[in-house]
Each structure stands twice: as C-alpha cells, then as structure tokens.
Predict the 3D structure of the following.
Amino acid sequence: MTPGPEGLDPTSPAGDMPGSETVAPTSPPPGDPAFWDAAVGEPLPKRRFPLLGKIGIGVAILLVVAIIAGFVIHVPYSTISPGEAVSLPPLVSVNGAKSFSDSRGDIRLLFVRERNDVSVWRYVQAHFDPDVDIIKDKVLNPQGRSQQQLNGEAQQQMADAKTAATVVALSAAGFKVTPAPGLTVSDLEVGLPAEKVLDFGDVITTVNGEKLTDTQQLQNVIQRSKVGDRVTLGVVRDGKAKTVQIAVGEKDERKLIGVVLTPRFNFPVRVNVNTASIGGPSAGLAMTLAILDDLTPGNLTGGKRVAVTGTIAPDGSVGEIGAINQKAVAARAAGAQLFIVPACSKTQDTTAQFEGCQQDLSRAVQRAGSTVKVIPVSTFAQALQALRSAGGDPVVTTTTAPRPT
C-alpha cells in the first residue's frame, strides 16, 4: 500500500502511528463521569445515601404534607373567640331632636368572632386557648342553614335589635312611639314553605286581602286552613309591593308556614346606629343605652367605661345571649369598669338551662377579672339603675323633644 501524506498509513490506528503513545486523559469530558473511570481502568463505586438522610427527607415530606393538609382539611366544628369592645357613642346619630353628644358616656358594644367549619389547625389551636370555645357546627346551626342564610339571619337580628332599642330609648326620653302597619319577617324556618317564598326583612301587609295587624291574625288564618292550602300575602320587599302565595305546612302536628314576625313602629325621631359588619341581637341593650344617652342631657355612665351585652325587647325586657365568656374577655381587654349582662331567667329557662346560664355567668365573672364589676340585669330599668348607682347621671327628659301632632 502506498503511504499517505506525511508518510503515514491511513489504515493504521492512531495509537499505532510512529512515535505515538496511548495517554489517559487527566480530566473527564464534561457531563460524562463514566468515561473517566473507563479511561483509568477503575469502575465507579455505586453511591450510597446514608439511611438517616433518607429518613430525614421522608419526615420532612410528611411534615410538609401534614401542614398543608391541616389548612385544607376542615372539621365539623366552630370556634368562638373574643372580639372587640366597640365604642357606641360615635356610631349613634339622631335627626329630628336635639342631640347631647358632648356629654355622652363611654358605652361599649361587645361582639365575638365566630368561625364555622374550621380547619384542622384552627381546631388544634383553639384547644390550647382557654378563651376560645369549640362547639359542634350542628349545635350552632341545628337547621343546617347555608352561610348566606346565616348571614341574612344575623343581619335581620341586628335590624330587629335596632328597632327595639329605638322604641325603648325614645320612650324613656319622653317621645311617643306608635305602631306601624304590617309585620316584619324576622326569621324563616328551614324546610317549611315560607323559606322558599319570603326573605328576611320582608314586610307583610295583608293576609288573604285583609290588612295584617298582628301575628295572631295570621295564625288564625293558618289554623282555619288545611295542610296544602295556600295563603295569599301582600309583601313589601326593597320598597316594592308584591303578592305571594304560601302553602300551609305541618310540623309536630301543628299547622304553620314557618315564619317569625315582629311588629313595626312609627318613630318621631330618626335614629341611626352604624353597626356595619356586626350581626346578631346581643347589642340591643347597649344600643338602647347609647341612644338614650344621646337624646338626654348628662352622662349615663358617670365617666366610667361600661361594656354592655344583652338583647332588648320593645317592652324593655333584657334577654340572654351566647358567648358571654368571650365577651367578658373583650370587656377586660378594653379596660371596662362595669360589665352589664343579662340575668339568668328562672321563668323562661328550664332547670338545666338556668343552671347552665348560672355557670356561664360565674365563668364570665372570673374571666372579666377583679377590675371589672359584672352586673346582671333583667330589664332596661335595672340597667339604668345600675349606672345610676355607679355614679351616672339620672335620665332627664327635655321640653325640646318634638311631639307628634
């Protein structure tokens, strides 16, 4: 064979070229560690991960999964925790009468934070917080209402509380309050006919074409009907009149449509209490005191900070409320000197309910602490007397109050 250029045989391997020699590379080609070991003639030993390292990674993964699951997974429990003690006087305004806002006392509305269907982590956290109560969702929401229905109920309860508070406060200030036609839908029972037709806050004006004056009138019509018969109601909703029909239902061998109605009133003075984002009926007594303090001279609290909770009825009776323990914590945190609460009722409660109320009240006294005096009352008059005994000014009606003609 004829030698190629440079006198080399092109068919010879490079390693056979004259003057050449085989040299192992001193570094592996990038990205190919196996080449190095083949080149040096030593196989790469199989890498082993320490057992403890494997266990650590596994535990870390499990912890991450558990943390995420704790936020994602929810349990059928609700938590009730202390809220705030909101100063009411700045939230009260009146039109149509003289306001004595310069001399108003420090009256605090109390509310709690309720969370339903909580996450696992919130449930665990609540177990370690003595100021938080854990209650089954079914206990707080026995009718199984949706969140939208619960919100509507709470808003209507607040609206009803404002109405009753205005009635009691105006009457105590010397104004004349008269009934207004129609009845307000305050509650709807889940699973009964009215729930599908009426809304919270509807005003029912007529029943079967006759003007509706009281709840007994509607009950009489229902009792004269058969189950399945339809009752025709005239309703005002959002300022618009309409007519609806509701079938008569039955529960526990009683004929009913499943609606709770409350009376309406004509007020000679326009009163507004700004309680946006706060629902429920328990602010009734506090709002009544704040409205009266605005309408009359003097300072009802005598310069003391007073936290108040309890429902109010148009006749001035004070009703029991829930979560009194959490409200006691809020009163203490706000620096209240007096904490006016509903007294337990032997006449309205069963023996078990009365004893449970007494236990809750005792715990509330402990949570309020030694610097807060807890005063149970059953009526608005007793609340006024409690403030008077603590140094508050007496209620003085004025001749400047307008009177309806």
In short: The CA atoms of residues 6 and 155 lie 102 Å apart.
